[in-house]
Structure formats: C-alpha cells, structure tokens
Design goal:
With 352 residues, this protein is an alpha/beta fold. The chain is built from 9 helices and 11 strands.
Length: 352
C-alpha cells in the first residue's frame, strides 16, 4: 500500500463516526428522493468523506439504510430507495424530526413532486412540527439562468400540488435549497437542517456573538470537523465567500491533520502509571493569512473532539491582539463544552 493510500485509510478510520453499541436518543432525518436523484451521494460526501468525483460510481440504494452520526447531537439518517412509500417505510413518520427530499434539478419533476407531496401530507397528519426540506440537487449541471428557472419551476409545482391536496397546505413551512456535491452549497443547506434539531442553538449563537464582539471578528462558525457542517454561527448574515473560505481551510486541515499528533511525553513505565492520567487535554489550533490584497486571517481552534471554532479576523487585529483572541477562545471553549455535556446527558437520559 502506497503512503498516500495509508494516509487516506488512517484518515477515514479517524473520521469515521462512532457506532457504539450503547444506544442514544438520536434525532432521525429521513432522506428521500427518486432513483438517481443524489441521496446517497449527499450522505457519502458529507458523512463518509467520499470525494465528489467518485459519487458517479455509487450503486443505487436498494433498501433502507440507517446511518448514525455523532456531532453536537446524535443523529440517525435514513437513506431510502427511490421506490419507498409511506406504507413500505417500516416506521411511522412521527419518529422523524426532519424530512429531506432530494430532486434532481434536471428531472421531469412529475414523479418526484407526487412522491414529495405524498410524504408531506402523511407527515403533517401525524407530526405537524416536522421539518420539511427540499434539496434541488445537482445544480452544477446547468447554467446560472437555467438553474434559477428550474429551481423556480420545481418550487412552483410543489406548492401548486400541495394546494390541490388542500388549501391548508399552502402554509406548510417547506424550505427549498439549491445544492451540489461539487461546492459547499450542500454543507450550507444541511447545516440549516441540523440547526432546527439543536435545542441549545440560541446559547451557542450567543457565545459566538460574544466572541465576535470581543475579538472584532466579522464572522465565526462552530464547525463539525468531519462533515464541515456548521452547527452554529453568529448573528451576522452568512456570506457565501467567507463560508467557502472557512470550509476550504477546514478541508486543508483535515487533509494534513492525521500526520500530526500531540508531542506530550509518554507516561513513565512505573506502578504510578496505572493511575488515571491528569495531563491537560490537547486542543490543536492554527491560523493562516490571506493575500495582502485581502488582509484577513482565518483561525482554527478545536473545542471538543469533533467541533472546532473557525473565525475570520482582520489581520492587523489578529497580529496585535492575538493574546486577547486566545483568551476569548478559552472562555468560548468552556461554554461550548458545558453545552455539549448537557446535550450528551440529555441524549443518554432520553433512552426508552
């Protein structure tokens, strides 16, 4: 096996979500769509680190597959075959917190729209609070004008079909997202899906607001390091260019991260070494400055084993006040870890 292959294998083992036997209360996400719409590609790119160019070779999903994933909260994503129906799903829709329906932007629309409306109507009858998301996917296949027009048509046909079912469905909170596995629109859209499942989101956002205020940071994200989903951000609008830069930076760190480890000295081979270790945990951090024409510095600080703070800072501010930034990171980390512990205890405490 070549060194690059060994590196990739080591990274995949490191990044693979933990699938322990101890059950947790997981927020369930139902991933639906017609055959070849791109459901499995979305799942594999986000949570299994599959390179986007390799999604072409994925086999169609033949049966319902459950994928557990642990981030700030435990998730369980159900990847369903294209011919699944409400009756053949094998579980009541009341069990799911969100439904994500994927439509190929180049599709003829009739079949996926009928299936989507079928699930929306059934879900609303048993769970009026369910989150409903539509990913208009494979957006990279069309030119910008055609992309916008097809997106508009899909939105219009879905809403018309819902109104035909009943006028009351006109008010269903249905969210549409334009996505592709070849850029970070997919991460942006799925991040918004996750936000609705995190009860502690307002507290995380407040911590990020305080961090940005104290450090003069125009934008900060709390990222899940493996999937590159941001579980929270500050109150300022998400600028696509800044989000893309942060994701690129995180991707670069993920590529090289497995090559490094803490250089803390090993414990001595003595009877005392059997005692629990008291050495301080290791929190990697990094920073990079962009080109002189764009005097911005991106900073990375690991907060929990799977969450990291990624922030943009004016380079002069970062260079002059680096100690202040690090001090605020310490307090931010403490706040996030407290919330993370509460979420963990709640997931374990909600076992049936």
């Amino acid at each position: 096996m070549s060194p690059p292959q060994r590196q990739q294998e080591a990274y995949l083992k490191l990044a693979k979500p933990q699938q322990k036997n101890d059950p947790l209360h997981r927020s369930k996400i139902l991933l639906l769509g017609t055959r070849r719409s791109g459901k499995s590609s979305i799942l594999q790119v986000l949570f299994k680190n599959l390179p986007s160019k390799q999604t072409f070779y994925l086999e169609p999903t033949m049966r319902v597959t459950k994928h557990p994933y642990d981030t700030l909260i435990p998730l369980e994503i159900w990847d369903c075959p294209g011919n699944i129906t409400v009756d053949t799903l094998g579980a009541p829709l009341s069990e799911f917190a969100s439904i994500v329906f994927v439509i190929d932007i180049r599709d003829l629309y009739q079949q996926p729209v009928v299936k989507l409306v079928e699930f929306i109507v059934a879900a609303c009858q048993v769970n009026p609070n369910i989150n409903l998301e539509v990913f208009v996917h494979k957006a990279e296949k069309l030119q910008e004008d055609d992309k916008i027009e097809n997106f508009r048509q899909i939105h219009e046909r879905v809403m018309d079909r819902l109104v035909d079912e009943s006028p009351e469905y006109e008010q269903v909170p249905l969210n549409f997202h334009l996505t592709s596995v070849y850029d970070y629109t997919l991460q942006e859209a799925f991040s918004r899906v996750i936000h609705k499942l995190i009860d502690s989101l307002p507290y995380l956002e407040n911590l990020l607001n305080v961090f940005c205020s104290n450090t003069s940071s125009p934008k900060a994200f709390l990222f899940d390091t493996t999937s590159k989903l941001y579980v929270a951000t500050d109150a300022s609008p998400v600028d696509q260019a800044t989000h893309n830069l942060c994701c690129d930076y995180l991707q670069m760190l993920n590529s090289f991260g497995p090559l490094y480890k803490s250089n803390a000295p090993p414990q001595a081979d003595t009877p005392d070494s059997a005692k629990p270790s008291t050495k301080a945990p290791f929190y990697p951090s990094a920073s990079t400055s962009l080109s002189p024409s764009q005097p911005v510095t991106l900073t990375y600080h690991l907060v929990t084993p799977h969450l990291a703070l990624v922030a943009s800072l004016p380079t002069p501010v970062f260079e002059m006040r680096r100690g202040l930034v690090e001090w605020n990171v310490v307090w931010f980390r403490e706040g996030v870890r407290e919330i993370w512990e509460v979420e963990k205890e709640r997931s374990e405490g909600e076992l049936v």
